[in-house]
Amino acid sequence: MTTGEFALRTDGVGKRYRKGWALRDCTLALPAGGVIALVGPNGAGKTTLLRLVVGLLAPSTGTVEVLGHDVTASTSRTLARIGFLAQDHPLYKRFTVAEMLRFGRACNLRFDQGLAEHRLAKLGIPLDRRTGTLSGGQQAQVALALALAKRPDLLVLDEPVASLDPLARHEFMQVLMGAVAEGDVTVLFSSHVVHELERVCDHLVVLDNGRVTLTGDIDTLLTEHRLLVGPRTATGPERSGAVVETVHSERHTTLLVRDGALPVAPGWQARPVALEDLVLAYLRRPGVDVTAVGAA
Ligand SMILES: Nc1ncnc2c1ncn2[C@@H]1O[C@H](COP(=O)(O)OP(=O)(O)OP(=O)(O)O)[C@@H](O)[C@H]1O
């Protein structure tokens, strides 16, 4: 992958199922390199977007470009550069780990079996065990080792840690981040868990009710946004910047604003906002019901 290449570009992407729209008007430009988190509540459209990215679904509107190629017209050579780990870490439960690796090698041109064996040995996961007898955390690690052995340029993971306990979650993210540090892979993963993202991600996409409500480089987003705390007021200070959210307590008003460079009004204090609070504020904003928009 060359510097400056986009890992993913979407333009006006929508996906409509029989019951209505799951995704509307999704326009993104995500750089290659680093880790991108896709965050949103249940039913936001995360899985739909990820399946569009890996070519398992075709968009109803718009275009999806992955690693510089329109994914709907992609050749097997382009698709071979994309790794995908589905939500439930699919493995053949009666296969041993070694058989799963052989299967991976048979299905993938660039499969590096030695790399997978090395990763699993470091984690103490025996190759002769049936995958169905491994713990949930170990199964997730086997699925990750298989996905990484494909040596993808873009690795897409759908809620990879959702079913794992905190320790297994931590170990999984450590292995994933180690792979990012070692190689030239861009990682795109979806998650409900927001509080660990700041530590591990470079880029953020917030999806709510089928719409992108926030996207950008995480450091930039945190610099652009801040909390303004002042005396309780109905309107807050006069501001030209966008007020994302207003919260009143008995004596104070707190505004989350996206105007990092503007001076602070007299009597008000500016504070940095934590990433989790930023994401939650965007998710609390009233959105548009995409199933109702043009659904006729
Ligand atoms: N195959 C399908 N057929 C019809 N509707 C679907 C299908 N897949 C998803 N949907 C609907 O599309 C919307 C988005 O679903 P999606 O699974 O993409 O969301 P999600 O953010 O991944 O949710 P979760 O966090 O619960 O996995 C939901 O309303 C869902 O019911």
From TrEMBL:
Single GO molecular-function term? ATP binding
* Residue ranges annotated for the ABC transporter domain, each copy included: 8-234
Keywords of this entry: ATP-binding, Nucleotide-binding, Transport
Where does the signal sequence lie? none
Supply the name of the protein.
Answer: ABC-2 type transport system ATP-binding protein
Organism equals: Lentzea albida
Q: What is the lineage of its organism?
A: Bacteria, Bacillati, Actinomycetota, Actinomycetes, Pseudonocardiales
